[in-house]
Amino acid sequence: MKRITLPLLALVAVLAAGAADAACRVEYKAKRDNPLKLDFGTAELPDSACASKEAAAAALAPRLAKQGWTLLAIVSILGGG
């Protein structure tokens, strides 16, 4: 029983720490050019970006741009805000 309990407790601690960092998740659409690639993804955002789609877009667009993607739309905000 101890073999299962310790790893389970470690997993719960890691998940709880991750949940404290992100106040919401957003679903978004993005694109890359040459060749054209479309993406539907999710991202974790801080509480300050969860109040509206505009706030989420302002927080997410620079992150995606660093990876070569252009944000097309925030589809939904899941939790927070």
Structure description:
With 81 residues, the chain is an alpha+beta fold. It has helices at residues 2-21, 53-66, and strands at residues 24-32, 37-45, 70-78. It has one domain (22-78). Helices cover 42% and strands 33% of the residues. The chain has a three-stranded antiparallel beta sheet, covered by helices on one side. The longest helix has 20 residues, at 2-21. The relative contact order is 0.22.
How are the secondary structure elements laid out?
Elements: H1 2-21, E1 24-32, E2 37-45, H2 53-66, E3 70-78
Antiparallel strand pairs: 1-2, 1-3
What is the alpha-carbon Rg in Å?
Answer: 16 Å
Beta-strand content bin:
25-35%
Structural class: alpha+beta
- Helix content, binned percent: 40-55%
Distance between the termini: 40 Å
Taken together, the total number of domains comes to 1
User: Uncertain regions: pLDDT < 50 for 5+ in a row?
Assistant: 5-12
What kind of assembly state do the chains in view correspond to? single chain
